[in-house]
Amino acid sequence: MSRLDHIKLATFKEAYFIGIGGIGMSALARYFKSMNWKVAGYDKTPTALTNDLIKEGVKIHFEDIGNQIFSEIDHKEKCIFIYTPAIPSDHQELQIIQKEGLPLFKRSEILGLITRQSKGLGVAGTHGKTTTSSMLAHILNESEWGCSAFLGGIASNFNSNLLVNPSSDLTVIEADEFDRSFLQLKPFASIVTSTDSDHLDIYGDTAEFLRGFQQYTQLIDENGILVKREGLDLTSQAQTVTYAIYSDSADYQGNDLRVSNGAFCMDVRTPKGVWPEVKLGIPGIHNAENALACIAMLEFLGLPEAKIRSGLQSFKGVKRRFEYHIKTDQLVYIDDYAHHPTEIQALIASVRLLYPDKKVTGIFQPHLFSRTRDFFDGFATELSQLDEVILMPIYPARELPIPGVTSDKLLEAISCKNKRILDHQGVIDYFKDSDQEVVLTIGAGDIDRVVEPLRKVLL
Known about the structure:
- By secondary structure, the chain is an alpha/beta fold.
- Helix content is 32%, strand content 25%.
- It has 3 domains: 11-106, NAD(P)-binding Rossmann-like Domain (Rossmann fold, 3-Layer(aba) Sandwich), CATH 3.40.50.720; 116-314, Mur-like, catalytic domain (UDP-N-acetylmuramoyl-L-alanine:D-glutamate ligase); 323-458, Mur ligase, C-terminal domain (Protein-Tyrosine Phosphatase, Chain A).
- The protein has helices at residues 23-34, 48-55, 92-100, 107-115, 129-142, 200-203, 206-217, 285-301, 305-314, 341-354, 369-374, 376-383, 407-413, 424-430, 451-458; strands at residues 14-18, 38-42, 59-61, 79-83, 104-106, 119-124, 148-155, 160-163, 170-175, 189-192, 225-229, 239-245, 252-260, 263-270, 273-280, 323-327, 332-336, 360-364, 388-391, 419-421, 438-442.
- The longest helix is centred in the middle third of the chain and has 17 residues, at 285-301.
- The chain starts with 13 loop residues before the first strand and ends with a helix.
């Protein structure tokens, strides 16, 4: 029996977060705020997201204040404490809470607790889970069914990473594989978009990483469904269907991807028939594949085709996922969170499909020394597909440097001749006098800091 089985959220009225500014943590903070709880917490640095939380009435500080955290709380016995695994074990606030034996949980445990109370629709995968879960939530939110949703990005349609709909029994959950978080969930149904190995600093090797996904798919309710991209070696006690672009064997197939009358669209074949010219609100080969997964899930649940089509066409995407910042005949600037070779390959392929005759310049910030080491050859291969490459120094996040793993070494391995390394300010300065056609900012670190200054320079 899980210790979560003994926890009743109704016994609490306050929530305190250590690492409140994370995308997943902030969604939980907003959820408890929507329940009229007092919500407070710590984060290392102010961001646009923490600023938004403060405006919404959440009390946040940016220094480790140790036992002074109890001055941030009204009733200690009515407070639940939530932390992210990214917080170091020597964090004073975390140690104080542990020492006092207060109810302390990982974000994934609380999310699992909440979603046990509804029909959970999980979206897992190394790539695509944020866009797919946001797309799924939007389609449901636009229908009479509605849903609640906990997302790993800011969905543009509702400008939030959270949807709360008390009248709906459906909850869309972005099921995160980091730290095996998704194993805390009990989904009724789930999409799995990909299982390309990642987070090997957590899992150790590819076999263990894949085992984590297999454990996750075994958690799906036997009356639900597993919707998996064709080729993934995963099983479930639930019904299983596959999807893929340009496939003759998948259960759900997307073909003839094209731009028609200004709209990105495809033809879809399902087990029940053909859906001609399904229009998507956002372009990209990978987004067409994400849309197929949503179609498969929603057709199983019984949502009418017209509702699915309408939701797909009105979906505006997710912040930092193929997000346009400039889109003119002369210049295009797209920002994307891609931080794995497979994601970069999909991004560049989609850009080439949309802009086949234009020069494409990519600015990439590697995320984590360990990921750069583990996928070094893949990064070099995919970045070499660009016409011009600008690398930024590796963003370390939670890691210490690894000897020999640097952006300089990666630059040497990239075959593109027009290449260089620049820091944040160097990027801005470089583009002041640079002729461009398509510009991409790529990465999951703090490269987002250059997005707005770069947009202003390019205009």
